[in-house]
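Task 17 of the worksheet. Students: predict the tertiary structure of the chain below and write it out as structure tokens. Keep your answer in the requested format; marks are given for formatting as well as content.
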Amino acid sequence: MYEGAIQSLIDELGRLPGIGPKSAQRIAFHLLAADPDDVERLATALTTVKATVKFCEVCFNVSSETRCRICRDPRRDPAVICVVEESKDVPAIERTREFRGTYHVLGGAISPIDGIGPGELRIRELVQRLADDTVKEVIIATDPNLEGEATASYLSRMLLPLGVRVARLASGLPVGGDLEYADEVTLGRAFEGRRYLDATS
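Model answer:
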């Protein structure tokens, strides 16, 4: 245990996801030894992102404006929505250049052990987007793990009665993996081979 500001910094860093006590300590001492200008830039970046970045009013992706650049792009196909768990999944799919529709960010996945049910996700907002019959297809691109599969299953049961085609990304994504770590080729193949979940498939 250290005293004062350095211990406070270690404690705060340790609260970040994926940062254990030893990593927090290494980062804290790195910052302590770093050039003051570098530390100032980091501090400014943190406060700026918190003050200026918001969520798109349509798809809930991170954005610096009321609507994100994808929702503002007239070249995107509004008839197709790709549903992802987190904003970090959107760039992973965009890198494939296979998808030209729009997105919907749920804000997580169903995980009863973590106390996350359908009510904690942006599922109601997704259903509202389908109300005007513009959307013809929903591609469920949740992570291929237990929570992602549970979320996909729940969404398909909810959306199919609404008259839209519902698809799940096909093989190519490893089970138990995270979408953000998949390479462009793997994600591209998954989009090309997506399977439909309705009775006509």
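Marker's comment: The two ends are 60 Å apart (CA to CA). Residues 37 and 43 are 10 Å apart (CA to CA).
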